[in-house]
């Protein structure tokens, strides 16, 4: 998708601080971090939401989740605890419609979220 911000990060047309890559995914630091660790994991292929990715390529969704947990290990937050969030749809706060998993940690996280 030519006008998708996260597709441009995948292609290198928009810069990002990439922390991890796999065959199907790219992980990079969120530009407006909400926790000491705040990384986004995205599929290289454009799918707007988690629901659409699950329907189109469940294996790729599994790869996104696997990579999210590997980011937590790399960041040293896996043992203390961390959160993986996929906002789906406008009411949930999704603003970029290229599916992404937020990996958040490095501080206590409230539950339920606001
Ligand atoms: P969401 O609200 O779940 O759609 O999350 C979108 C996230 O993308 C937000 O946390 C933004 O801070 C983040 N974001 C937006 N633009 C960029 C960018 N150029 N590089 C890194 N993260 C970004
Ligand atoms: Zn995209």
TrEMBL record:
The active site is at 100 (tele-amp-histidine intermediate). Residues 5-114 form the HIT domain. GO terms for molecular function: catalytic activity. It holds the Pfam family HIT. CDD domains: PKCI_related. A motif (Histidine triad motif) lies at residues 98-102. SUPFAM superfamilies: HIT-like (SSF54197). PANTHER family: HISTIDINE TRIAD HIT PROTEIN. This is Histidine triad nucleotide-binding protein. It comes from Actinomadura bangladeshensis. The lineage of its organism: Bacteria, Bacillati, Actinomycetota, Actinomycetes, Streptosporangiales.
């Amino acid at each position: 998708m030519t006008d998708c911000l996260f597709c441009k990060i995948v292609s290198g047309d928009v810069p990002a601080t990439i922390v991890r890559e796999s065959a199907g995914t790219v992980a990079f630091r969120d530009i407006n971090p909400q926790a000491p660790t705040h990384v986004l994991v995205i599929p290289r292929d454009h799918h707007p939401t988690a629901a659409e990715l699950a329907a189109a390529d469940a294996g790729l969704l599994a790869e996104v989740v696997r990579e999210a947990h590997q980011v937590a290990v790399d960041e040293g937050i896996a043992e203390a605890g961390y959160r993986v969030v996929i906002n789906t749809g406008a009411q949930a706060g999704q603003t970029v419609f290229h599916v992404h998993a937020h990996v958040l940690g490095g501080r206590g996280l409230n539950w339920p979220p606001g």
